[in-house]
TrEMBL record:
GO terms for cellular component: cation channel complex; plasma membrane. GO terms for molecular function: inositol 1,4,5 trisphosphate binding; store-operated calcium channel activity. Keywords: Ion channel, Ion transport, Membrane, Transmembrane, Transmembrane helix, Transport. Gene3D superfamilies: 1.10.287.70. One of its GO terms (biological process) is regulation of cytosolic calcium ion concentration. InterPro entries: Ion_trans_dom, TRPC_channel. It is a multi-pass membrane protein. This is Ion transport domain-containing protein. The chain crosses the membrane at residues 20-42, 93-115, 182-206. It comes from the Eukaryota. Residues 13-217 form the Ion transport domain. It is found in: Membrane.
Length: 305
């Protein structure tokens, strides 16, 4: 798989990063390298296989990588005339989803910091004064009793789950009524911004993207199919991982029996230059056809946008 990705990258470096599936392939390879490295570390360390946190982490990575491989296998659906346009619509919607999620992240961080600051301010009422000894926190249960960072993490978790309706406003209550009221007010403002505005904006963006893709469904599908065919034209004929067997066998065969193409080239020699002219002409035709395909793909992409 590494050799296949390297061959694609060497074929066209600029086009390699334009395909979203290549990013998934690189991520899968990186996870596999991490898995193999950690597995070597566990073998070198030895010990029991039970209650081994490193092996558990490796199995977690295996599960994530299996999910990525199944998703990668779905790329063949883009060649179908029915499922292909729908898959293109999903990819375009995924870009819109990332934009809205970025806005969600800023809103959640902003309100988490504000609510955490409100609740950390009330801790001054729970400290001993006038030379009294003892810890007042033993008798009270403030919202931020476990520290500022854990309070920030707790607030962010509540805000995230509240978007899905899985949080209760009672989770935001604390000792003092003033702090609880201010925090609940910020909580309501957050729900208005996130649930009413951002989610409706997400629905509008997804609807607009789907309408644009369905309008140019045939052009979009032909464009994606031409991209896939142009990408795999110069790759190895046998897919991964079966090329691990075919490539060494082919190299051994050429080493023992010789390459028939090289022998034909040696037999021709310099007696006639017509073959060289024909070879150059065929190479120029392939280059011209490849440039024509690239130009056609660019024109289709401009029309679709």
């Amino acid at each position: 798989m590494i050799l296949s990705e390297y061959q694609q990258y060497q074929g066209s470096q600029s086009k390699y990063f334009k395909d979203m599936w290549n990013y998934l392939d690189v991520l899968t390879l990186v996870i596999y390298i991490v898995i193999v490295t950690l597995r070597i570390v566990t073998v070198a360390q030895g010990g029991e296989a039970y209650h081994n946190s490193l092996l558990v982490f490796i199995n977690h990575l295996y599960g994530v990588n299996t999910m990525f491989l199944v998703m990668r296998f779905s790329s063949v659906l883009s060649l179908n005339a029915v499922v292909g346009p729908l898959q293109l619509a999903l990819f375009r919607m995924f870009v819109d989803l990332l934009i809205i999620l970025l806005q969600f992240a800023f809103v959640i961080v902003a309100f988490s910091l504000a609510i955490t600051k409100v609740y950390t301010a009330e801790m001054s009422y729970l400290t001993p004064i006038h030379n009294h000894t003892g810890d007042a926190r033993r008798y009270h249960h403030p919202y931020c009793k476990e520290g500022v960072f854990k309070c920030l993490s707790k607030t962010s978790t509540i805000l995230i789950w509240s978007v899905f309706g899985l949080a209760d406003k009672k989770d935001m209550n604390s000792e003092t009524s003033s702090s609880s009221n201010v925090a609940l007010f910020l909580y309501v403002v957050f729900l208005v911004l996130s649930v009413i505005m951002l989610i409706n904006m997400l629905v509008a963006l997804l609807t607009n993207t789907y309408d644009n893709v369905t309008t140019n469904a045939e052009v979009e599908w032909k464009f994606s199919r031409a991209v896939v065919e142009n990408q795999y034209r110069n790759l190895h004929t046998i897919v991964v991982p079966f090329n691990l067997l075919s490539v060494p066998v082919a190299l051994c065969y050429f080493k023992l029996e010789g390459n028939p193409r090289e022998e034909e080239a040696k037999n021709v020699g310099n007696s006639t230059k017509i073959f060289t002219v024909i070879a150059c002409f065929r190479f120029s035709l392939n280059a011209i056809s490849r440039n024509m395909v690239d130009h056609f793909l660019c024109q289709l992409k401009k029309r679709s946008t």
